[in-house]
Design brief:
Blueprint lengths: L5 H21 L12 E15 L12 E6 L2 E15 L1 E3 L7 E3 L6 E15 L2 E4 L2 E2 L5 E5 L4 E11 L16
Length: 174
């Protein structure tokens, strides 16, 4: 009989390990990626846009429009805008201690919340859209015909189709 070399032992152990992993997967001792998806459901998520400069008459993101979304610098797809809420940057009034007024030093600076809807794969860790877990704090870019805004996700909700409705009114700039 021939002696086994080190290379032969490595190959044999690799085959044995592959067989063990295969048996464990077939017997459901090991969970594969497609088994982790619990459901597919519509979700809505809000993107907070801080310090957007708009000198036009209206805020460029409109309710019921489509916006192209980029998640973590990876282009995803066009999604429907469910709601847009924007208002001028605020400051405390010099006349009152706790009164907020529009900041006169920054008349073209706005903060906005854009609510978007999509269909996501629901896992035990949360909603997955375009291969990314959608969680609060995730950086996203919204892009339309006349705008490209960077923001962060501030809220994620798994909804039923009947639950997707307005949460406020579209506020015009100007």
């Amino acid at each position: 009989m021939k002696k086994f070399s080190l290379v032969d032992l490595v190959i044999i152990s690799g085959v044995v390990i592959a067989l063990i992993v295969g048996v464990c997967t077939a017997k459901h001792f090991r969970q594969t990626a497609d088994k982790q998806i619990e459901a597919t459901s519509p979700i809505t998520f809000q993107v907070f846009l801080r310090g957007v400069t708009v000198t036009g008459k209206e805020f460029p993101v409109k309710k019921e429009d489509k916006t192209f979304i980029t998640i973590r610098n990876v282009p995803y797809t066009e999604l429907k805008v469910v709601d847009v809420s924007s208002e001028p940057r605020k400051t405390f009034s010099p006349a009152g201690r706790y009164t907020l007024v529009n900041d006169p030093s920054q008349p073209a600076i706005f903060d906005a919340i854009v609510t978007i809807t999509d269909t996501a794969k629901i896992t035990k860790d949360g909603a997955v859209v375009g291969g990314n877990k959608i969680k609060m704090g995730l950086p996203v870019t919204l892009e339309g015909e006349s705008y490209k805004f960077n923001g962060t996700i501030s809220d994620v909700r798994v909804t039923n189709t009947a639950d997707v409705q307005d949460s406020g009114e579209n506020v015009n700039v100007g």
